[in-house]
Amino acid sequence: xxxxxxxxxxxxxxxxxxxxxxxxxxxxxxxxxxxxxxxxxxxxxxxxxxxxxxxxxxxxxxxxxxxxxxxxxxxxxxxxxxxxxxxxxxxxxxxxxxxxxxxxxxxxxxxxxxxxxxxxxxxxxxxxxxxxxxxxxxxxxxxxxxxxxxxxxxxxxxxxxxxxxxxxxxxxxxxxxxxxxxxxxxxxxxxxxxxxxxxxx
Amino acid sequence: xxxxxxxxxxxxxxxxxxxxxxxxxxxxxxxxxxxxxxxxxxxxxxxxxxxxxxxxxxxxxxxxxxxxxxxxxxxxxxxxxxxxxxxxxxxxxxxxxxxxxxxxxxxxxxxxxxxxxxxxxxxxxxxxxxxx
Lengths: 201, 132
Ligand SMILES: Nc1nc2c(ncn2[C@@H]2O[C@H](COP(=O)(O)OP(=O)(O)OP(=O)(O)O)[C@@H](O)[C@H]2O)c(=O)[nH]1
Ligand SMILES: [Mg+2]
Known about the structure:
The complex is a heterodimer of chains A (201) and B (132). Chain A has one domain (3-200): Rossmann fold, CATH 3.40.50.300. In chain A, 30% of the residues lie in helices and 27% in strands. Chain A has five helices and eight strands; from the N terminus they run ββαβββαβαβαβα. Chain A has helices spanning 25-35, 86-93, 110-126, 155-163, 181-196; strands at residues 3-5, 10-18, 45-48, 54-67, 70-78, 98-104, 136-141, 170-172. In chain A, strands 1, 2, 3, 4, 5, 6, 7 and 8 form an eight-stranded mixed sheet that branches. Chain A is globular and about 55 Å long. Chain B has a single domain (8-131), classed as Beta-Lactamase. A five-stranded antiparallel sheet of chain B has the order 3-2-6-5-4, sandwiched between helices. Chain B is an alpha+beta fold. Chain B has helices spanning 8-23, 52-72, 111-131; strands at 5-6, 29-34, 39-44, 81-84, 89-94, 99-105. The radius of gyration of chain B is 14 Å and the shape is globular. Chain B has three helices and six strands. In chain B, strand 2 and strand 3 (39-44) form a beta hairpin. The interface between A and B is medium-sized, with 28 and 26 residues. Strand 1 of chain A pairs parallel with strand 1 (5-6) of chain B. Bound molecules: guanosine-5'-triphosphate and magnesium ion.
């Protein structure tokens, strides 16, 4: 849940990058950290294993400037994608305002994407939040691998698998090259801001 | 309190309590956060500067982790959460199900004295919300 400080006119918004293991969530934040370094005042925090897998979360605070006189502090988090870490995934989701679901567009990842999305639905439900109501953007990541001849799912298939009921904004992307990473971020920020704006009387 | 939005007066009163009860006895920095890692308010003694946003994210995670471990071993909660360093100590205390009070303090204050003041601080903050 976003937190609004009426005295200092600061709004804190929690956006979580969610998705299957090795899908590219951390890579999204690393790109944002490099690309928007002017809007980022502190170090990215990464709680990870020696093998660079997210163990608990990554955290990156992002200054958005002002909307209606309120300073927007966007707090970006990633969850650990590995199946065994669902308990920690749930902890990170606590109080979430908006979600980017990072799917891995490789053909072999089709099942895992769907399973992860279903678990997101369940995890949100445990906090009495609905995947159909929360601001959500889908990202079909790693499409750059197409150029290397690696089988990538057509976007129409990904849309059918994941977005036929949700009907939320979606992007093909490459977190590695940054393709559509800023677009994904802007979209989730604007959806989230719209959804909490009614609190900013 | 309408959680999610705290009024200006409420924040000012909370800050007063924090200053009076904790900063004045020598606590370096005190932060109130929610369990999602948002900062409700932060007060310091003017000399210590911490990156409070990252701190809040990590502290919320730390608290949630310890809480989950407590449940795994059949405890309702671990009531004392305290990290001891050479120059800096960190003390966590739950205000209610949503809020945490975190105090950072040095060698000059004993843990017992700090805890006493934290308990009083929390009582006063709770009274404040009960009134509104
Ligand atoms: N080719 C390609 N590789 C990518 C892309 N995004 C991420 N990767 C690679 O995929 C691997 C996993 O990326 P991470 O960002 O660590 O994945 P994650 O989702 O954070 O993984 P967990 O922390 O385990 O949940 C790394 O080797 C990345 O370099 C992409 O767009 N294209
Ligand atoms: Mg990661």
